[in-house]
Amino acid sequence: MNISNSKDFIRSLDLSPPFEELYELGDRLGAILVNQKGDYEQHVYVRGPILYALISKLKPKTVLEFGTAGGYSALCMARAMVDNNIDGKIFTVDRLSMDFPQTRNVKDSSGNISTIKSSNNEHWPKVASKELIEKIIPITGYTGQALNKIDLPKIEFSYIDAAHHYEGVKHDFYSLLNVSAKKFDVLFDDYINRPFFGITKFVDEEIKNNFDVTLIQTDEIYISSTEKQNHGMIWFSTETAKKPLSEIFPHSNVENFLKKYRRYEKYVVTNRHKLNTKIPYFTNVKFKFWKKSS
User: Fold this and answer.
1) Of 95, 117, 139, 172, which cross-links 101 as Cys (Cβ 3.0–4.6 Å)?
2) Alpha-carbon span 89 to 100, nearest angstrom
3) What is the 3-state secondary structure (H, E, C) of the chain?
4) Is the per-residue pLDDT at 288 higher than 90?
């Protein structure tokens, strides 16, 4: 596996993203995170320039994002499409609707940070042009449920950053296989050993040995005073496959897994709806294996 820090990776693509403008977008969008000490952090911002660079370089006309959250990633990819005159669309899936009020830590031009609640439909027009927003097609629902709502074109690039438990990551990738173009690129977020996260397990078991893979170091997490672990994004292209995709991911295996997982997903959705009806507070609660909205 190739390892590169974020700046070197972007430089290797011979591109220079508008870092300041993308970081300002993150500020205004409310993508600032709060760490365990209560301090504000912007370390997720580097994902924007990475996505911008990949879209600018690869020029996909069809993008599928798993995990819309507050929209920072989708809008950065849309900005790349607009700047490079790419006649494409970004399909982005999230279980929360575009009208759901999300908590955002918004930074103004004076550097002041305020916490607000605002939906994507309400907030995006305040921070992004109509041209960018029109590049994005939101799809609401858990992945299996949501993808049945729309006939997708063949997908050329995918950003996977929704459910973070092992089965959820595997389900999202296998779902991608059913709608992907013959050749496509994938970027996974949060490759790290952390409770309830299964990205590392899935990549190590099914991706790393079958493709030329690059770990992009986005930040580092210190597990203890003596142990340091890279926290990064995983990028690969199916052009580098060691053997045909049909042999790496046999169709019967993919379909059997998707069928089994989607039965489980339907059970979760149904029972959660019943719980939300009885206890409305749970509408705002995410399962531990879901990454918090940014």
Assistant:
1) 117
2) 23
3) CEEEEHHHHHHHCCCCCCHHHHHHHHHHHCECEECCCCCEECHHHHHHHHHHHHHHHHCCCEEEEECCCCCHHHHHHHHHHHHCCCCCEEEEEECCCCCCCEEEEEECCCCCEEEEEECHHHHHHHHCCHHHHCCEEEEECCHHHHHCCCCCCCEEEEEECCECCHHHHHHHHHHHHCCEEEEEEEEEEEECCCCCCCHHHHHHHHHCCCCCEEEEEEEEEECCCCCEEEEEEEEEEHHHCCCCHHHHCCHHHHHHHHHHHHHHHHHHHHHHHHHHHHCHHHHHCCCCCECCCC
4) no
Task: Name the β-bridge partners of 117.
Answer: 103
Q: Which residues contact 198 (CB under 8 A, 6 or more apart)?
A: 164, 165, 166, 167, 168, 169, 170, 289
Residue ranges of domains in the chain, CATH in brackets: 2-284 (3.40.50.150)
Q: How far apart are the first and last CA of the chain?
A: 29
Instruction: Pick 240 or 39 by higher pLDDT.
Output: 240
Give the pLDDT confidence of 134-146 residue by residue, as tens digits.
Answer: 999 999 999 988 8
Global confidence as pTM: 0.89
